[in-house]
Write a structure and sequence with these properties.
- With about 260 residues, the protein is of the alpha/beta class.
- It has helices at about 30-40, 65-70, 75-90, 110-115, 140-150, 150-160, 165-170, 185-195, 200-215, 220-235, 235-245; strands at about 5-10, 10-15, 50-55, 60, 95-100, 105, 120, 125-130, 165, 180.
- The strands form two sheets. The protein has a six-stranded mixed β-sheet with strand order 1-2-3-5-7-10, with helices on both faces. A four-stranded mixed β-sheet has the order 4-6-8-9.
- The chain is globular and about 60 Å long.
- About 40% of the residues are buried.
- The structure holds acetoacetyl-coenzyme A.
- Acetoacetyl-coenzyme A (CAA) binds near residues 22, 104, 106, 131 and 139.
- Acetoacetyl-coenzyme A binds near residues 22, 108 and 111.
Length: about 260
């Protein structure tokens, strides 16, 4: 049985971590399968991805502690790189990725959600970086992404105390965009994905790349990054379609991803 499933429905692709007996803990096989699933995504058709966990208990309860227990220094570093390379691939994936967090998002699970563009959580979701309580640091990007996403003081408190937080607190500190009842979670994620999918795909991709790249740069340089991709949009048919529809007072728009 597969640890990761993928389903395409129109312009929206849904990836599910599927190891519920271990609360979707991320072992090497899950990481490999998640990587392989990304290769399956038809980027000419799909305009937004949703990533969630199977079951109602966990998005992912972290990297697999049983697998990590026996690692030595070199192996630990390699395991961290394996997760980091994959999560960076998700973060820089050309399409937006929405994390639909349906329960525990701990350690590597919280880190995976943070690698996504947007996080929607169910009311029963729990976030945390429990690693220091296990004698390690976060290793799939948590020490870097958490402090970029939420105020550094909150990030430091979460990591140093290893204390889990509930969805409402995650919302308050900006770790998630919205909290909904679990029965509404996939509907909400799909609603946002549909809103994204209705817009010009090249413009959305360019905006994602601009935001990601720009956040790493000084403002003057970041502006040149924006200017380049803004200009490139004028080389697309979708720019003519989007602006043409406005000028013709036409509601219907057909973006063809070219
Ligand atoms: N690794 C491996 N197995 C895990 C796991 C993990 N991270 N989290 C849960 N499981 C397994 C449990 O071992 C258990 O398996 P068995 O039935 O075979 O014993 C099964 O999932 C169900 O878990 P629990 O019985 O513990 O369920 P619970 O409802 O009592 O508790 C929980 C839920 C609070 C999430 C608890 O499972 C827990 O604390 N899990 C570990 C969370 C954690 O510390 N994550 C961080 C890992 S370190 C990391 O991720 C490093 C990194 O940055 C790369």
């Amino acid at each position: 049985m597969s640890f990761v499933t993928y389903q395409a429905d129109g312009a929206i692709g849904t990836i599910l971590l599927n190891r519920p007996e271990a609360l979707n803990a991320l072992n090497s096989k899950v990481l490999d399968e998640l990587n392989a699933v990304l290769d399956q995504v038809d980027q000419n058709v799909i305009r937004c991805l949703i990533l969630s966990g199977s079951g109602e208990k966990a998005f992912a309860a972290g990297a697999d502690i049983g697998e990590m227990y026996h690692l030595n220094e070199e192996e630990g570093k390699a395991f961290s790189k394996k997760g980091n390379d994959l999560f960076r691939r998700i973060e820089t994936f050309p399409l937006p990725v929405i994390a639909a967090v349906n329960g525990y998002a701990l350690g590597g699970g919280c880190e995976l959600a943070m690698a996504c563009d947007i996080r929607i959580a169910s009311e029963n979701a729990v976030f945390g970086q429990p690693e220091t309580g296990l004698g390690i640091t976060p290793g799939f990007g948590g020490t870097q992404r958490l402090a970029r996403l939420i105020p550094a003081g909150y990030a430091k408190q979460m990591i140093y105390t290893a204390r889990n937080i509930k969805a409402e607190e995650a919302l308050r500190i900006g770790l998630v965009n919205k909290v909904v009842p679990i029965s509404d979670l996939m509907n909400e994620a799909n609603k946002i994905a549909s809103q994204i999918a209705a817009n010009a795909p090249i413009a959305v991709r360019n905006a994602k790349a601009d935001i990601n790249e720009g956040l790493e740069l000084a403002m003057d340089l970041a502006m040149t990054v924006e200017e380049k991709r803004f200009g490139a949009c004028f080389n697309t048919n979708d720019q003519k379609e989007g602006m043409g529809a406005f000028l013709e007072k036409r509601k219907e728009k057909t973006f063809k991803n070219n």
